[in-house]
Structure formats: structure tokens, C-alpha cells
Design a protein that fits this description.
- It is a single chain.
- The chain has 502 residues and is an alpha/beta fold.
- It has two domains: 5-14 and 391-501, Sandwich (Immunoglobulin-like), CATH 2.60.40.1180; 22-383, Glycosidases (TIM Barrel), CATH 3.20.20.80.
- The chain contains eleven helices and 26 strands.
- It has helices at residues 56-65, 111-121, 136-147, 153-160, 189-206, 227-236, 256-260, 262-283, 304-308, 326-341, 374-383, and strands at residues 5-11, 17-20, 27-29, 69-72, 96-98, 103-105, 124-128, 171-174, 211-214, 242-249, 291-299, 346-352, 361-364, 367-370, 387-389, 392-394, 397-400, 403-406, 408-415, 420-427, 433-439, 447-455, 474-475, 479-482, 485-490, 494-501.
- It is globular, with a radius of gyration of 23 Å.
- The structure holds alpha-L-arabinofuranose.
- Alpha-L-arabinofuranose (AHR) is lined by residues 31, 74-76, 176-177, 296, 352-353.
Length: 502
């Protein structure tokens, strides 16, 4: 029997933009956790390590993605971290317990190593301060260390430690998930609002050129959601630039339809946080707009059981090493599309994390490989720069736990300078191909450059060290422009990137 092909329409207008894509929406995250740092980006003695101990194979894959900003050094880890432990002669750096993850941190890799690595990775730093077990004084000292030229106690310490020029870190997280009882030094919303504002105020006195991200909710289901954001913003509206959102998705009891509809939940979350930001703007009669930093997002669940068996107080064990399957590619693709569709307010987003720990890149002693979720993230980062067009999708769909989920998720990005148009689309239908139509009469002369597809017959297919290319992106000839209209076939359960240009 011939396969059914359903139809969907995508509408864009060349002049109706949601907003410019801030490249930091393609950011990622490296925490001192598991093998993210040690054995992930840094492994002296490994055959792929350079003279600094940085893994060249990992760097190559990171550069393939083009990661513009990396959040560092945590995560839960940061809420008990002493930044001073991570600078100075390595032999003198203390080994400390990290109660958040039940491990020992050796501090062999620290701030200077990270800054050196970030240069090679061609990425900027988003540095998180410890507002858990420490506070305002510590925030003041670390920014003096990183951003003041010299002639003061901490800036001279940096120079003595080998960095003549300041690191000039411009993006700072005011703690991590401080609304969560699992956080070391967890705070109430009133306590956090006060300390974050006072720390932020002082940091901006020291370097007015920085931007600050205040902790929002650790996920949409937090009991304090909404009130937390409002309280934090009411106290620190003038100091804060972005409010953070975190969200990870696990399975829905193997209900793939509900699993893939979690991007609808993410969309609801973003809309809700925008509303709270704008509520505070209104009551303050302010002209300033607070934007969003979705600085932890991903699928996360595969490693849960395996992690429970880990021995405590070891150094960089195999923690949170989720092996992603093909279904995760689809959800990560839809989440990426959701973030882009909110480019007017979501300015920063970090796929959590980057290497080995819930990550698109995995390493072993013998090499590095791409997990299934690598492809939508890489293609969006590489080709999703420009202006997001207001993309209206008319497609059949289904009622999910989170609301109506269209089978086709899509966003169209226009790069006026390069004269390209890129369509990202996910087909969530398990059985049917979809033919999408896009009116291109405003883009005369555009041709199909390429149509890349990630699909697989098995939703649970994975990439492993032995089979690193089981799930991959392939070029297809499914797209054609005739009489000013693009028609593309999106296979059942697939991620698609269609590039058009002159
Ligand atoms: O990314 C893993 C952990 O998830 C981070 O440390 C924490 O911020 C979040 O709960």
C-alpha cells in the first residue's frame, strides 16, 4: 500500500520579523560534573590532547557546531564552589568535596585553563557566581580578578597567575537554581532577591559593561514559579538584564506523542515568563525590557538509574552520561525551533550540557563522537543566524497533555546579507510523510541549496563509540521550487533543514 502523504502550509512575509537571532541562543554549558571537563575537554596525556591538555577531537566537534557562549563552571556545583581554589599553581590548588554531585573536585582545571580553552573553542564565557554558600563579597572579588586591568589585590593576583590582560567576562549568572531545595544554600525568593540585587549592583559598579542573568525557576512546575520571578524582578529590575529558565524533559511513559509535545510545554513556559517580566515592567512604569536566558535545556533521563549505583567521593566518574536516541533528536529539534520562534525575547540559551554529561558530544580514550541530538543543534547554530520570520504553520496535529501539538513544527530564518532562507522543520507524525508548501514569491530567484534530513525507522536508535553514525544527517532531494512555491517532503518522524538561496 502506498504511504500516505499529508499536507501542511507554512506562511512567511519577508518584512514581518519576530526579531534578530542573538547568536547566544546557540550557547551551551560545561559544569564541573562527571566527565564534562576531565576527559571531556581536558585530558592531558590522551592521544588527542594538545600541549595544554585540551582534547583536539572535542574542540573540532565544538567548532563544527559553532558554540558562541559556554556557561561555566556550574550548575549545582557552583553553589559550593570557591573560585580562588581554581587559580594559581596547580600543585597548590586544594582538592575539595563537591556535595552537590558527591564527588571530589581536584581543581586541576580552573579559570585560567577555561579561558584559554574558550579562546581555542572560539566561544565566550558566561560565568556563574556562587550565591549558595557564599555571596556578595565573593561576587565582588571574582569580578575584580577577571575584569580589572591591574593595580588591585585580585587583579594583580590574576597577573601573577599568568594572565596579564583581564579576561573581560561580560555575561554573569547570579547563582544557579536558587529556588531549588536541592541547591547548596537554597534561598527563599525574598532572600535571593536581596542578595542577587546587592551582588549584581556591586558587580556593575565594578564593571558597568557586564550583563546579569538572575535565577528564575528551575522548571515550570516549581511551586514558587511566577511569584519567584516577580519577587526577584521587583527587587532587582534595574540591575538584572535577563531572567533564567531551566527545563529538562524525561519520558512520558513511552508515549511518543506526549514526549514530542513537550516543546508545547516549553513554549508555554516561555510565554509565562515573558508575561511576568512584562507585568513587573508595567507596575514599575519602566521602559526597560527584561529578556530571557534559557540557560539549561535538554532531554535528560536515560542515565538516572545508572547514576544511582555510583560510588561516592571519586573524581570525575561517569555521571549523567545519557545516551540519546533518535526520538530525542526530534524533541531537541522542536525545542530549538521553539527557542528561535521566541527570538524577540529569548536572547541566550544553553543546551545543557556540551560534552559527556547530558551532551551532544561524547568522548572515550579513543575518540569523540556525535550523539543523535548533535544534528539539530549544530545545523540550527550553523544556519540559523539572521532574522526569524514570523512563521505561521497550518498543519494537522493532535491533542497532547500540554495542549494542541501540530505535527509540523517549523521556523524560517532569513539572512538578508547572505541572501539565504533556512527552513527548520520537524515532522512529529510517526507514520505519514508531510508535503509542506511555502510561498516564495517575495524571494525571487531563490533556489534549493540543500535539504538535510535526520530520520530513522527506530525511535530508540542511538549512536555509540562502535556505531557512531547510526543516526546521522543525510542530504535528500525532497525539495523543489516551482512557480514561486517551495514544496518539500518531510518524511514521517524527521528533523529537516532546508536551505534556499541565490
Ligand atoms: O545540568 C545538570 C544540572 O541540572 C545542573 O547542575 C543544575 O543546574 C540542573 O539542575
Amino acid at each position: 500500500m502506498a504511504k500516505k502523504v499529508q499536507k501542511a502550509n507554512i506562511y512567511v512575509d519577508r518584512n514581518i520579523e519576530v526579531g534578530q537571532v542573538d547568536k547566544r541562543i546557540f550557547g551551551s554549558f560545561i559544569e564541573h560534573l562527571g566527565r564534562a571537563v576531565y576527559e571531556g575537554i581536558y585530558q592531558p596525556g590522551n592521544k588527542f590532547a594538545d600541549k595544554n591538555g585540551f582534547r583536539k577531537d572535542t574542540l573540532k566537534l565544538i567548532q563544527e557546531i559553532g558554540v558562541p557562549v559556554v556557561r561555566y563552571p556550574g550548575g549545582n556545583f557552583v553553589s559550593g564552589f570557591h573560585w580562588e581554589d581554581s587559580v594559581g599553581p596547580v600543585a597548590k590548588r586544594p582538592h575539595r568535596i563537591d556535595p552537590a554531585w558527591g564527588v571530589i573536585e581536584t581543581n586541576e582545571f580552573g579559570l585560567h585553563e577555561f579561558e584559554k580553552w574558550a579562546k581555542l573553542a572560539k566561544t565566550d564565557t558566561m560565568y556563574a557566581i556562587n550565591l549558595g554558600t557564599r555571596g556578595i563579597e565573593d561576587a565582588k572579588n571574582v569580578i575584580e580578578y577577571t575584569n580589572i586591568k591591574g593595580g588591585t589585590y585580585y587583579s594583580d593576583m590574576r597577573i601573577k597567575n599568568g594572565a596579564k590582560d583581564p579576561f573581560n567576562i561580560k555575561l554573569w549568572c547570579q547563582g544557579n537554581e536558587m529556588d531549588g531545595p536541592w541547591q547548596m544554600g537554597h534561598l527563599t525568593m525574598q532572600e535571593y532577591a536581596r542578595i542577587a540585587n546587592e551582588a549584581g549592583k556591586m558587580m556593575k559598579w565594578i564593571d558597568p559593561g557586564i550583563e546579569l542573568v538572575a535565577c528564575g525557576s528551575s522548571n515550570l512546575d516549581m511551586p514558587t514559579f511566577g511569584k519567584w520571578e516577580a519577587t526577584v524582578l521587583e527587587e532587582g529590575y534595574d540591575t538584572i538584564d535577563y531572567v533564567s529558565l531551566h527545563q529538562y524533559y524525561g519520558p512520558d511513559h513511552n508515549d511518543w506523542a506526549d514526549f514530542l509535545a513537550k516543546s508545547v510545554h516549553m513554549d508555554n513556559f516561555i510565554n509565562a515568563v515573558v508575561s511576568v517580566c512584562d507585568y513587573v515592567k508595567a507596575v514599575k512604569h519602566s521602559k526597560k525590557q527584561i529578556n530571557l536566558s534559557f540557560d539549561e535545556w535538554n532531554v535528560w533521563y536515560h542515565s538516572n538509574e545508572q547514576d544511582k549505583k555510583l560510588e561516592k567521593w571519586t573524581t570525575h566518574p561517569h555521571q549523567l552520561e545519557d545516551v540519546y536516541n533518535f526520538a530525542d533528536t526530534l524533541l531537541v529539534g522542536s525545542m530549538m525551533i521553539t527557542l528561535l520562534r521566541h527570538a524577540d525575547r529569548v536572547k541566550i540559551a544553553c543546551l545543557a550540557q556540551l560534552v559527556n554529561v547530558i551532551a551532544p558530544i561524547m568522548t572515550s580514550d579513543t575518540g569523540a563522537w556525535r550523539q543523535t541530538i548533535f544534528f539539530p543543534y549544530m545545523q540550527a547554530s550553523k544556519y540559523g543566524r539572521g532574522a526569524v520570520l514570523n512563521t505561521v504553520v497550518k498543519s494537522a496535529g493532535y491533542e497532547s497533555k500540554y495542549g494542541f501539538a501540530p505535527y509540523i513544527d517549523s521556523v524560517v530564518i532569513k539572512d538578508e546579507e547572505a541572501e539565504t532562507l533556512t527552513v527548520f522543520a520537524v515532522n512529529k507524525n510517526m507514520d505519514d510523510d508531510f508535503e509542506i508548501s511555502l510561498d516564495l514569491r517575495q524571494f525571487e530567484g531563490y533556489k534549493v541549496i540543500e535539504h538535510q534530513v535526520v530520520t530513522h525507522k527506530d525511535l530508540e536508535a542511538v549512536n555509540t563509540e562502535k556505531k557512531p553514525e547510526n543516526v546521522k544527517s543525510v542530504a535528500v532531494k525532497n525539495s523543489k521550487i516551482t512557480k514561486g512555491e517551495l514544496k518539500s517532503i518531510l518524511p514521517a518522524k524527521s528533523w529537516n533543514m532546508i536551505r534556499l538561496g541565490k
